Amino acid sequence: LKSPAASGQVLFASERVELHLDDGRLAVDAVYHLRNPSPDAQTVSIEYPILVSRQSPAPTSVLVDGRPLPVSAGAPGQVSVRFPIALAPHDLRSFAIRYEQPLSGRSASYLVTSARRWPAPLERAVFVIDHPASWRKVHVSYPVRALETGGGRTRLTLAEQPFLPDHEVTVRWQAPARR
């Protein structure tokens, strides 16, 4: 059996995703890295899915490397943007995604199980969750590796290596105590 790299398939190498949470809003700022192990140039069609619900409607647009792309219907409970990524032989290519999504309620989810469509696990995935320090009982669906607080904000860092997710990154919280 050939490994995905030996077969020349483009690999989803790693990701760094920052989830900036505030009351009523999720902002996603992410960088993804693809690796082409092949001696041939390849173009990959990316379908970037985003979870949507009544509590988190679709963003109006998504910036891919600074260019706004339209959002279209995807699988149930998802919308997506589509774009090609060209990789030279033995290339490592990065692309950046940014979008904002309105939130109602006290939870936010970021889709990661779509990474299972790639031929191998990601080598590394880092998620930084930034939220108001006044939020109480913050729960994250993956282990928190580091926690920093300052300037009225809390930053939680999650890191998985390798990463073959079986559930989404979900953050739940309670409102600050009333004074």
Description:
The protein is mainly β. The chain is built from no helices and 14 strands. It has strands at residues 11-22, 25-35, 42-51, 61-64, 67-70, 72-73, 78-87, 92-102, 107-110, 124-132, 136-140, 146-150, 153-160, 169-174. It starts with 10 loop residues before the first strand and ends in a 5-residue tail after the last strand. The mean pLDDT is 94.
Mean pLDDT, nearest integer? 94
Q: Can you count the helices?
A: 0
Structural class given helices, strands, pairing?
Answer: mainly beta
Describe the main β-sheet briefly.
8 strands, mixed
Low-confidence stretches: none
Distance between termini?
63 Å
The portion of residues forming beta strands comes to: over 45%
Rounded radius of gyration (Å): 17 Å
Helical proportion, percent range: under 10%
Number of strands: 14
Largest sheet, spatial ordering of strands: 5-4-8-2-1-10-13-12
Order of helices and strands: EEEEEEEEEEEEEE
- Please tell me what the overall shape is: globular
